[in-house]
Amino acid sequence: MSGFVKGLLGVSVLALGMATAQAEDLTFNLTIKDHRFTPQELRVPAGRKVLLLVENQDPTPEEFESDELRREKVIKGGATARIFVGPLKPGRYPFFGEFHEKTAQGVLIAE
């Protein structure tokens, strides 16, 4: 087998492995509407990397922020953000919307 074919085979195996890893990511949806997160409590499995799809249904921007998750992302009005977190230890990880902190509150619960 030539070096080129071996290299091509290696790249194919790597790409397949990456696609499999992405397929294994767990996806959870969060919605921002009327400056509130829904659901306010989101349960995710501990020890797994998860993808949060945060859809901002408000016409104004909001920021998903969490000191515990070490994430901060401004989401334009009408847009959806992809936020990866984890793997997380079991526990509670609060998050909030910085632009409407009094109403935009939530918690991610890893169990």
Please, could you describe this protein's structure?
- The model has no long low-confidence stretch (mean pLDDT 88).
- The protein has a single domain (26-110), classed as Immunoglobulin-like.
- The protein is built from 1 helix and 9 strands; from the N terminus they run H-E-E-E-E-E-E-E-E-E.
- It has a 5-stranded mixed sheet with strand order 3-9-8-5-6, with no helix packed on it. The chain has a 4-stranded mixed sheet with strand order 2-1-4-7, with no helix packed on it.
- The longest helix has 22 residues, at 3-24.
- The chain has one helix spanning 3-24, and strands at 26-33, 36-38, 41-44, 50-56, 62-66, 71-75, 80-85, 91-97, 105-110.
- Helices cover 20% and strands 46% of the residues.
- Strand 1 and strand 2 form a beta hairpin.
- It is of the alpha+beta class and 111 residues long.
Short synopsis of the structure:
The protein is of the alpha+beta class. 20% of the residues lie in helices and 46% in strands.
**Number of distinct beta strands:** 9
Element order, helices and strands?
A: HEEEEEEEEE
Global mean pLDDT: 88
- How are strands sequenced across the largest beta sheet? 3-9-8-5-6
Please give the CATH class. Mainly Beta
Number of domains: 1
Strand content: over 45%
Principal-axes geometry comes out as: globular
How much is the radius of gyration in Å?
18 Å
CATH homologous superfamily descriptor: Cupredoxins -  blue copper proteins
Our measurement of the CA-to-CA distance between the termini, rounded to an integer number of angstroms, reads 48 Å
